[in-house]
Amino acid sequence: MARAKGRTVVAAATVRPAVATRPLGRGRRARVTRTTKETDITVELTVDGRGHADVDTGIPFLNHMLDIFARHGFFDLSVRARGDLDVDQHHTVEDVGLTLGQALREALGDKAGIRRFGDASCPLDEALVTAVVDLSGRPFLAYNLRIKQARVGNFDTELVHDFLLAFSNQVGMTLHLNQVQGRNPHHVIEAGFKALARALDKAKQVDPRVKGVLSTKGSL
Ligand SMILES: [Mn+2]
After folding, report:
1. pTM score, whole prediction
2. Domains contained in the chain, CATH given
3. 206 CA to middle of ligand 1, Å?
4. Is the pLDDT reported for residue 23 higher than 60?
5. For residue 155, how far is its CA from the centre of ligand 1 (angstroms)?
6. Which of these, 213, 140, 170, 160, lies nearest to 21 by C-alpha position?
7. Distance CA 164, CA 111 (A)
8. How remote is the CA of residue 25 from the centroid of ligand 1, in Å?
């Protein structure tokens, strides 16, 4: 495996996902490139950002949700994803979630001084979704969006669950996402991403009262 211009180059015979991470200088930032036979994804994430997104996944609705994630979570986020969309959207959506999760875990580092917990409720017209996160190091997803429609545009709505499972597994966080109410699937999913972003923005904040990591175990 060789690196050229910051990109991981992988032999065609590689079966296991090739993942390369590197720190991006000062601050809580990370860059992760993940290449398989199904997808080729690079994520750059700045935890303490201004909400700027530069996203191209080949799936417009996923781009829209990642833009929202960055904007409302005050991350700076760059995503370049090329996947086998001729098969379907599953590989690309799941692997973007996975790579974004790896980038967030990498960027948070040892999580010293952070608040760890965060919660938010976001409405979008008739939809209301609540997100509660714990950057505990233990992955768990309680997914309670009840989306009746199979599609939003050409996006398969069940892939929201797959995205969030991959994301929370890789971050190593507990995520409870609960739909209080909602009818329109675009509204429900968008309210969910806003709530997740705002909950993470709380959890990632450094609290000067927190000495070391906020755990009686001594590590997160
Ligand atoms: Mn929208």
Report:
1. 0.90
2. 2-203 (3.30.230.40)
3. 30
4. no
5. 13
6. 170
7. 21
8. 34
